Task: structure prediction
Amino acid sequence: MFSILRSGGTGLPKRINAVLEIESGSNDPMAIFLTIGCIELLTQPDAGWATLVGIFLSQMVLGGLAGVGLGVAATKILNRIDLNAPGLYPVLVSTFCLLTFGITAQLGGSGFLAVYLAGLVLGNQKIVFRSGILVYHDAIAWLAQIVMFVILGLLSFPSRLLDVSGQALLIGAVLILVARPVAVFLSLIPFRMSVPELTFLSWVGLKGAVPITLATFPLMLGTPQASLLFDVVFFIVVLSAIVQGCSLPMVARWLGLSTPPLASPSVTLEISSLRDVDGEVVDYTVSDQSRAAGRLVRQLALPDGVVIAMVVRSHQIIPPQGKTEILAGDHVIVVLKPGSRPLVDQIFGAKESPGALPRWIEFPLRGSITVGEMLQLYGVEIESDKALTLDQVLRKRVDRTVPATNQTTDFGPLRFTIREVDDDGSIAMVGMTVQSPSPPATEPSPKPSTAESAKPNSNL
Result:
């Protein structure tokens, strides 16, 4: 579905993307549960609703617990084990996936749900040789899809599909025009989604290879009329791919939900290391509403420990200098320490939708940054002259000619700690901590816009 939208040059709002991602991840385990449950009811006369409830609980609860637990265990082992060959790390992750599926299935849980959750845990953790692991499994996923479609195609006979076309068209029409819209509206109305959003989500229920794969289960178990079920499911999937798949970009534009997709950078930079490195590389796509758009690199007031490694404009690589101007559409590749990430996100984020800084995390700031730059770039406001530097403000507040390190002073919810003082008595580095749940004040933008903030993508 997402590949269809990308090929059509169509993006979607964040909210719809999030709903579709959650649905894509939760669909398969539920579909497998329903398939197994229905087969149990058909093949075992004494099976009832209690049987279905038991299957559901064992599949979902055990699958969820095993997936999260084994995902955490895999992350710890992956970061602690010492493998001299880089190519063994992707193999080790694949082994964990197979073990997760097998152990969970043996315990009576959903192996598919467990592998999905374990993958989520691994993908959101800092692991060694991350980029190589992602590339390897992306290739394996494409190969598996190709093989699966070829095998499923060999099981289908066009002549039999024509025989069931009338029944399949009727069932497909009910699923697409009635069942899916009713389910979407009943499920999402409490979340106050708009009618265009609900309409698009109703239309976007593409049927993929999983229903066809599940249709082979009755064939393997010898369920009555299993061949008819397989042919009907195969026809409905083809119908859905043609009717819904081909019209997705057009429907998104018609409902006013289409957004320009973020361009992929023509160049990427990454840290490939077999050991845990205290740093990361982040690729920011600069939107026209980004705080960084139209500023010179030296005007960005980057926190301590943050360096712009490369600016990619169209297909050109621009080595960054202090006088380099950041333009909308640029891909800015930043090397930073993990603790500085929220502040850098603020700099490259949108003016109209500032994110709240996390509390009780100390952010390293240079003493040369001005109060005005803090407001404009970080969305952080302190009561002082906008032209004064943080060094000047803090020296006035601590009332000492030569400030001492580790001295602290508060400005409302913000606490500033002097971390480094130069030989001439000026404050070189300051740690800033947000102590209150109240979000820092932000500077209003004179040009309202609905543009979304830049989306950073991490590569380690």
